[in-house]
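Q: A reviewer asked whether we had any structural model of the full assembly, not just the individual parts. We don't, so I'm hoping you can provide one. Inputs are below.
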Amino acid sequence: MKFSPLPHNNACLVTLPKQVVMSQTPTLRAALTRQLESGTNRLIVDLHEVEYIDSSGLSILISALKVADKTAGEVVLLSPTNGVRALIELTQLHQIFTIFENKHSAIEHVCSPSAVSNH
Amino acid sequence: MDSIHSQPHKLLLVEDSPTDMYYIKHVVSALGFQVQTSSCAEQALALIKQHHFDIVISDWCMPGMSGPQLAQQLKTLANPPYIILLTGNNQAKHTVAGIEAGADDFLTKPFNPAILKVRLLAAQRIINQQQCLAEQNQQLARSLDKEQAYLQQLRQELHSASLLQQALLPDNSQNLADWSIASTFDPAQDLAGDIFQCFEIDPSHIGFYLLDVTGHGVAAAMQSFTLAQQLSSPQCPWDGYDPAVIAQSLNDNFSDPEDLGRFATLAIGIANTRTGECRMTNAGHPRAIVLGKQRVSQAPLDNQLPIGIKSGTQYRFNTFTLSPNESLMLFSDGLYECVHPKFGEFGLQRVKRLCQQAITMTPAGLLNHLRHAVNLWQQHNIQDDISMMIISTQTQHAH
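A: Here is a predicted structure for the entire assembly that you could use as a starting point for your response.
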């Protein structure tokens, strides 16, 4: 997992590794939660490298979203591969996550001043 | 006092010359050792078999058994003493023979008492370290025993929990308002995050569900137990024939105390066994498969958010009708998500193709067929819980 800070709004781009499966979820979840609790509450989760994710891998995304919601933050997804997209659609997670195909649009979205809520 | 140890070390002096014996005894007693003496190796051996000695100082040449021979015998004991050989001979070949026999140190006669003193201090250091190590070893062995007993207990508890879990699953021989079911359940670990059931609501309706909590193991199993308990409670409104209402109440009562993002996918339905009408709600779960007489298709179901993701989610149900001779197969994603190291995911298409090819089989036969294929695919190394349940519009004896 790679964290690349973005210029505005406490935003950050997180790149998930090739495999996001049950054996790694505790570590990945802890890293993401730490990031969110340290004030970076606007995350782009870059999924373009992820070849395989299982349901406990998806639970990382959901827990990140729940933590971000508490601080009026946001978690968006970027470039899921076909397999990952199929699982996201099966579990209907596209209903709760905004998904971007284009990195610039995602960055613009989380960094634009209008995206910051008034809380 | 030079003695390092709080209790004086026991020393046995083996020496045939009375003058040397007297002299050495005097020196070592002054150092605080508890000294016993013996004038020959045979007697020394007999003494050592009765009492433990920390250190043996032995002369090289004695009538009868020699010093090196004594050392050789002593080193075969379970807890051998530290052995210092005394020799009047300063030859290298003696030193080699002595060390080979098992002596720990050497002293050439005549010796300066100060030299004997430092050699004995070194011996004491080694003995103390060995005692320390032995104590630590014992402590480690004790805690290892404790851990192993605990692990054993946990294993037994897991085993009984898994039996309990399997007892919650439907009985394949029961007849349900003239319909029947077949099912298989293969947990990835002792306990699964999967749970399913099918039961009679009244003489013309059956209720069924299959749910899959994120992950597997104890925490997932506890979560699935909790959900199953709500579903089997008398308060659960199965007699309203509305699966969406039940899904909604499960979602509203779902708790994820550690905020782990845990959720459950659920397929839940109610079938009228007289008309074949099924109402089903699909919450993020793989769509059920309808096994027809000739063809296999996915049930016409809208997929909705899994249970536990967003409170207040409004669920809906879809309605479809099973014709006589049709069956409905529910399964968890473990069935098709398992991965072969070279060929990748088993895949839903393969599941459907296998069902199509085996369409004439009995439900139990088809489940075994699928189970076998998946087992080969994941090379008998179960990656996720796999549950399958086929609900047939016919009683089992019809096959």
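A: Points you may want to mention in the reply: Chain B touches chain A at residues 212, 214-216, 259-263, 265, 284, 286, 303-306, 309-310, 333, 337, 339, 345, 384 (CB under 8 Å). Residues 1-5 of chain B have pLDDT under 50 and may be disordered.
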